[in-house]
Amino acid sequence: MTAATRQLTSTVASQSLGRGTAGQALLHIEQARIGYGSWRRVHEHIIKMTGAPVAAHSQSCLFEGAPAIAYVLATAEQAAYESALATLDSHIDELTRERLQRAHRRIESGLLPGLREFDLISGLTGLGVYQLRRRRGGEVLHDVLEYLVRLCEPLTLDDQALPGWWTANDIADHPSASWPGGHGNLGIAHGISGPLALMAMAARRGMFVRGQLEAIASICVWLDRWQQGNGETAWWPGTITKRELDTDHLEQAGPQRPSWCYGTPGLVRAQQLAGLALDDQSRQHKAETALLGCVTDNAQLDQLSDTTLCHGWAGLVQATQRVAADAGARSPLTAQLSHLTRRLDELAFFDGSMHRPDLLEGRTGIRLVQISATSTVDSKSNWDACLLLSG
């Protein structure tokens, strides 16, 4: 790997999937795919996002640098990009193996992980998503899955057994006196629901490593432990503090905002996928019922303050589309989609988020969800694989 490709350029906005040109290119790909835009416009964005040296250093991740660029090129599915993809693949494989080696050394040292070691946005789960989408399997994905299984094994710290993915940091992945003893993160973007969704998706595609199904089940047991309510009133917290862990008592009074990143929509999608992977219809139905309760509860919906993909209405709608599709045409979730999409359209018209071009927190993500909502089943694409909503 050359010095140019390895240099630290992760701050280059063009190479950011979440907040830069790479993410915006996904919208142009989707528009070209349905005949609403041109592949020439797509290529212009790809030239723009590759204008600077592509970052392929050890901190590159699905949402930044070479993996983000490669994810976009793979999504385009154009023969013209195969040569560039082959070059990027070799760098991504190398950096993934480097990160896996560091993670295994950390486990062997008995230390707790940072979120950026394993999560979807910055960690090995995201790199596994790329391998699943690009190669539908392979040796590197196998190694990532083996690591995720190991991540689920308990660690003992100060004579206390903790989940292997418990972190000593705060939710921003920094040491903080405001989070004594760290926390357990349940969200799909930064927490254990990301590894759960990836392992379940891989299993549904027939990709298994030893202990994978047991690891899926163990995460589900943890989520069951912290589930509040039942049926349509069920919900899960996004994080667990050390004090809550020690007392086995959740201090959060009610459901948080129903966002993709930390809320019920992302948590439910991961658990639905787990139910499908384990052939556990009861778990699948429980997850789908919880989401139905969420999307019909105005008290929860009123907590959404914007229409973005990460934190707002767009993420709720996209997750609901995916959950409803796997729940079947007769699911009551399907009947809710038109209402939810209409509210997204109405609110987006006045939302200041539309002034930002970003995928996660701007108009790119909102428009992608609007396109998905109006597509037929046969014409839907998997642009949202980067969110672990599709495979």
TrEMBL record:
GO biological process: peptide modification
Cited InterPro entries: LanC, LANC-like
Domain of life: Bacteria
GO molecular function: metal ion binding
Pfam families: LANC_like
Keywords for the protein's UniProt record, in alphabetical order: Metal-binding, Zinc
Residues the record lists as binding Zn(2+): C261, C310, H311
SUPFAM superfamilies: LanC-like
Record-linked CDD domains: LanC (cd04793)
Name recorded for this polypeptide: Lanthionine synthetase
